Amino acid sequence: MGEISIVEPGLQLLVVDAGRNTHAQEIGFCASGALDQLSFELVNWLCDNALDVPALEGMGEFTLSVNFTTVVAVGGPSVSVWQNDKPVDVWHSLLLQAGDTLRVKPQRMGTKTYVGVGGVIDLPVVQGSKSIVTREGVGGRNNDGASLKKGDVLGIDLHEHHPQRLLKEHEKPDYTLDKPLDVVVGYQYEHFDNWQQQLFFASEYEVTNDISRMGYRLKGQPIAYPETDLYSEGINCGAIQFPGDGQPIVMLADRQTLGGYPKMGCVADYDLYRLTQAVPGDTITFQSISSDNARAKWLLRHRLEERIFESEDTEHGADD
Amino acid sequence: MQFFGRIKDIQPAGIDGVIIYFHGDTLTEKNEAVQAMARGLKGRRLSWIKSLIAGYDSLLVLFDLQRADTHLVYRTLRQTSPREATQDEHSHYELPVLYGATGADDLAVISDKTGLSKADIISLHANQTFKVFTVGFSPGFAYMGELDEALRCPRLASPRKKVPAGAVAIADRQTAVYPNASPGGWNLLGRCPLPLFKADGSHPVTLRAGDTVTFTEIDEATFKELSDSHG
């Protein structure tokens, strides 16, 4: 068992994984898990881990140290990484020795940086997940939902292999927001007036400061919904809901399971990572896609990712 | 697409989700149709179904994208017979309540909103059999109903930052017990001293959709005794 110490936690440092057993939502547990599942899976792959094991999700600049020899990997939008003050590569497996420190600094405040560790982080399991869920006060060392603090120590059940892996340029996630996010329309879509539907897809929305792991509140052209009573209903990840002020909120990993605001549809799963890596002030547009086309696109992207995950170390081996 | 049985509408809910809305003359009827379809689907043990999230009048079906698509969900719904609950499938709970308990007392506000006296409010809430329509919003939070029309009561204009664990509350024609301290916008009637659902995995009382609940009025001494004995 190795130990990883939090030297400096930054703005918020959490342990996240692929999320809870999905049936837990039936009794009110939020889905939980990494906000940017793509980057999360990639750092696990770089460490030769199963893709769903816990990793660190941090905001702002943070520093860790280890008391054992292990492989780690860092990923996220525009991140700089130092191993003992020496710059090292992002999206690259890194071999740390006992006593080494790893410092991570994203260029833009608010993006999420993921750090995978070669092995499995030892923490209490709630509904099949080790994710820390601050909102519910669940997960983490004391199972109280507290984010990681300076001086916290996490036990790691290490694995023995130290892979040398890296992502090629075209394999790195494209976080840019130039292209619209795909939206599978549904839920109450047909009840919005036609011109309100068009207005939504023709408008640009800005990410506000009011963003959390539950959802991102956007600001722009308000969208009207005809007065009707809606009963609370199940909320899928990426659902775009409109409270009374008509400003969209996109629901994310730690969303409540039920809610009664009208919804236009859901941002397609494969585009959610771009939204969750957006920061206040960024602008976003949406485009409609049928669920059949969205599924086809998902399957295609999934196959491309699997090609990375199934490739041999030699193909992705480091030069040195 | 043609609908069938008690299904009123089916809509996409993301790439990997479909939401089904049900007919019924009353909310109770709609909710029974939701539960019956959920039971029918559960009974088939389809491993590509990731989750069945019941709302009041809707059922959100989440599926494994690699093995299913919306068309398979439609086909499966057609081939699935809704199943009514058997007697022993649901539990009945009696939950003691100290009405007007300190820290959870909106009786005066409810009285203003409904025109009922405090005694009338309590008599319309205690000793009734309420049904759990759905569980969600937060872990173990059970939406129960329906309250007598006279007790219908709108939510607070602005939600409280913190409602204590065990607070018994009403909103519209629903009632609920907050299993854990949380923010909340419902009107508070009092407190239940029994530990309910705990998010850490221990669940002394786990209410599930279809269960029934009766609230019984207790006095302060009994409240204290029950609180102490459950630590």
UniProtKB/TrEMBL annotation, chain A:
InterPro entries: CT_A_B (IPR003778), Cyclophilin-like_dom_sf (IPR029000), PxpC (IPR052708). Keywords: ATP-binding, Hydrolase, Nucleotide-binding. Residues 26-304 form the Carboxyltransferase domain. This is Biotin-dependent carboxyltransferase. It comes from Salinimonas profundi.
From TrEMBL, chain B:
Keywords: ATP-binding, Hydrolase, Nucleotide-binding. InterPro entries: CT_C_D, Cyclophilin-like_dom_sf, PxpB. GO terms for molecular function: 5-oxoprolinase (ATP-hydrolyzing) activity. The keyword Ion transport does not apply. Its EC number is 3.5.2.9. Pfam families: CT_C_D (PF02682). Signal peptide: none annotated. Residues 8-207 form the Carboxyltransferase domain. SMART domains: AHS1. PANTHER family: 5-OXOPROLINASE SUBUNIT B. This is 5-oxoprolinase subunit PxpB. It comes from Salinimonas profundi. The gene is pxpB.
